[in-house]
Design a protein that fits this description.
Collagenase (Catalytic Domain), about 5% strand, 4 strands, binds zinc ion, four-stranded mixed sheet
């Protein structure tokens, strides 16, 4: 294990690491399929994210530690190939016990990233469902964290970008083409919602990237590889996904 992780690991007890392991083995397929060494790194990154992120929930709805671990693991999964280990701006998560709506807006949400309050809102049943069915290309937590990473990348200065400039340019080019084809119902790998705009396209692509990587790569190799280079990982290699 890299020295950096050995150093961070010192800040967590064996009990915390064990709990993290058991929760993720039971709930997160990506973690379960990783090699022993990668699992060790994944655990430390999950505990670090959990500790540096504010978790809140509705009064009367108890947010247990195993829930926080599962939510954190979605972020770690997306960023496993990147240096980014925490969120700077959207580092406050509010979990609701059910779908919700906003005042003066009829729409029902399972999750949203609020650009004004800088909060990530997610409903627990939808988060759980996302991980319970690991191969339907639907994962709310991955979707919402996809938005957070996208927005943070946009607001960071040139030197601190999350994505490499050239990789992001390649992805943008692919995304423009993909967006048109989703809207024309020509690109069928991604669900229709991806056709809303390039931000939704990114998050829906992420869900498909992690939950149907083999199918995605076979049908849309250019878009798949633009994602793989952006995130520095190929989830088809389940035990060791990070690109060398
Ligand atoms: Zn969205």
């Amino acid at each position: 294990m890299h020295l950096k992780y050995k150093f961070i690991a010192v800040f967590f007890s064996q009990k915390e690491k064990n709990e993290c392991h058991y929760v993720l083995m039971a709930t997160n397929t990506y973690y379960k399929n990783l090699s022993e060494n990668n699992r060790g790194i994944f655990r430390i990154r999950t505990l670090l994210f959990l500790r540096t992120t504010g978790f809140n929930s509705e009064v009367g709805f108890l947010l247990k530690n195993n829930m926080k671990i599962l939510i954190s693991s979605a972020f770690v999964q997306i960023t496993f190939g990147l240096n980014m280990m925490t969120l700077r701006t959207f580092n406050s998560i509010f979990v609701t016990p059910r779908s919700y709506s906003y005042l003066n807006n009829k729409a029902i949400f399972d999750g949203d990233v609020n650009l004004y309050t800088k909060k990530v809102n997610m409903s627990w049943p939808a988060i759980e469902r996302g991980f319970d069915i690991p191969d339907d290309a639907m994962n709310l937590a991955i979707h919402e964290f996809g938005h957070c990473i996208f927005f943070e990348n946009a607001t960071r200065s040139f030197l601190f970008k999350i994505f490499k400039g050239r990789d992001f340019e390649v992805w943008k080019k692919e995304a423009v083409d993909a967006l048109k084809r989703v809207q024309l119902r020509e690109l069928k790998v991604l669900r229709d919602y991806a056709g809303t705009n390039s931000i939704e396209l990114f998050s829906v692509s992420l869900e498909t990237f992690f939950e149907k990587p083999v199918y995605f790569e076979r049908k849309e190799p250019n878009l798949y590889w633009s994602m793989a280079h952006l995130l520095k990982q190929d989830p088809r290699n389940t035990s060791d996904p990070i690109l060398k």
